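Annual report, structural modelling task.

Input specification for the adenosine monophosphate complex:
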Amino acid sequence: MNLLTALQGGHGDAADALRIDGRTLSRERLLGAANTVAARVAGARALAVLARPSVETVTAVVGGLLAGVPVVPLPPDAGPVERSHILRDSGAELLAGEGPAVKEVAAEIIGAATVDALPVDLGETSAEQPPEPAAEQAAFVLYTSGTTGPPKGVILSRRAVAADLDALAEAWAWTAEDTLVHGLPLFHVHGLVLGVLGALRTGCRLVHTGRPTPAAYAEAAGTLYFGVPTVWSRIAADQPAAQALSGARLLVSGSAPLPVPVFEKLTTLTGHRPVERYGMTETLITVSTRAAGERRPGSVGLPLAGTETRLIAEDGRPVPADGESVGDLQVRGPSMFDGYLGNPLANAEAFTEDGWFRTGDVATIGPDGFHRIVGRGSVDVIKSGGFKIGAGEVEAALRDHPAVADAAVVGAPDADLGQAVVAFVIPDGPVTGDQLTDFVAQRLSVHKRPRKVVLVEELPRNAMGKVLKKRLLEE
Ligand code: MCA
Ligand code: AMP
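The model returned the following structure:
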């Protein structure tokens, strides 16, 4: 099984087969430069990649995949706490990417976790391609937040990635004729696995806009567009940008719920009913509406080919597929991950005894098989702008500040971001909300920063001492 079929298979090529934040690369040039990366990383335990949206990042990722070395994307804005956790936990020995940037980052983190900088040089090329690694080998270790503790490394095999991309290609009629456009970060499933490997497997052109602004999407003249709901909501609010997408073939939303009014506004302005799909870092994309099927607002549609889903009640009994009864959504199929890296406890909790993955999402399934995601089981997992943020991780960062006695973090409803991170903090000395926001932005990633900090004298707690987050949300 070849993973990057279109890259290696000699499909039609063009000088601008890939356009990433304004710079272009043919597939031939990408393969040649990636071969040189592959030769340098062969045998490494893991390859970290500084995941800025750039041609160097894509080359580094492809180099790791060609060599069969698990690729660990590092969020480019991750602060020292998050960076050193990812590097140490993954065991990455090398950090690849744009020359000056990787050298700078590698120099900074020495001490906390040691990695050697591997600057990508697009001027270098090699025709020597390593043999295709086994399908069971890990393609990626992607870090994702849970309810508590630091982010966990999700091991995704080459087989799982290939299976998911093929199922999506079928669901969305995605072919080499498409031009895929998006501006999503290259350190998550959405932007990297679907948004980059999808293009290298189907052979379609790729335009990465750098940032996912309405103007950049409008200018890109694509056929297939990916976005998180925040991106679609900003496009729906920008009439000329939305109308410029009317010539596209398919608009796809995912990573968080697409609000029904945004679905409807997009339909009016673009003439397209968006496809909505559902997935997780651990499972890849598992449920989607179809290019050639009904696209229903508020629904993520049907399981992809090969994937099975079920709803389970709190008492463990099956929940009927009547479109109204809610249950915990469990999934299994060919795109599942191979466990959390070095985390047997989390692995044991993640799967049922009979091998189904507990998504943590609450859903309904209709008699027609259509799935509706109605929420998450835990208030401690926040989705803001499509990013998953663990309340516990932000709380721990806040408690590291000398003027913080305690903190509780919630996801408050937000018209732009879906949910916004809001922190309730008991101060232990003079401090402002802005200072605490900057403190988190610098230690973790910028998107994990609280958008609002409320200084309080105490936090509401139950008899067990647990913070009553639902009460905080009501406030
Ligand atoms: C602001 N900035 C700061 C601070 N405040 N920097 C440092 N300290 C601060 N206190 C800067 C940022 O660096 C950034 O700069 C700029 O302000 C804007 O940042 P921000 O406000 O965070 O941007 P936003 O407008 O809120 O972002 C919206 C977004 C973003 C673009 C939609 O949320 C996004 O990219 N979301 C995609 C998430 C995603 O891909 N999720 C997929 C997960 P500068 O502009 O210079 O950078 S995978 C998944 O969920 C599953 C599998 C699935 O189903 O897909
Ligand atoms: P991540 O860990 O970043 O991969 O995020 C996975 C989570 O995103 C899922 O468990 C859901 O809560 C959420 N999610 C992804 N797609 C959708 C969608 N279309 N509708 C509702 N929630 C979604």
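The chain has a mean pLDDT of 96.
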